[in-house]
From TrEMBL:
Protein name listed in UniProt: AB hydrolase-1 domain-containing protein
SUPFAM superfamilies attached to this UniProt entry: alpha/beta-Hydrolases
InterPro entries (UniProt xref): AB_hydrolase_fold
Length: 88
């Protein structure tokens, strides 16, 4: 897959969610969630193996990191709603 620095989608609450894709664009989708500190760019380290394994690696920036907007009052239980926006 062509290396990309990232994309952004707009969430229902108006925030931007940043992500990047690596590996096989037609492969089985697998999400990568970085730790603290970190960003979607960590997943680029797995690009070669993901390509060889038929995996489409989707790396998402957590709120306030990388290309994702900060979320005031954020709770850990809010994260799945953000990620589900990418699956639609």
């Amino acid at each position: 897959m062509t290396k990309e620095k990232g994309k952004r989608i707009r969430l229902r609450d108006g925030r931007a969610l940043g992500y990047a894709e690596f590996g096989d664009p037609g492969g089985r989708p697998v999400f990568y969630f970085h730790g603290f500190p970190g960003s979607r760019l960590e997943a680029q380290l797995g690009d070669g193996e993901a390509s060889r394994s038929g995996v489409r690696l989707i790396a998402v920036d957590r709120p306030g990191f990388g290309l994702s907007d900060f979320q005031a009052g954020r709770r850990i239980v809010d994260w799945p709603d953000d990620v589900s926006a990418l699956t639609d």
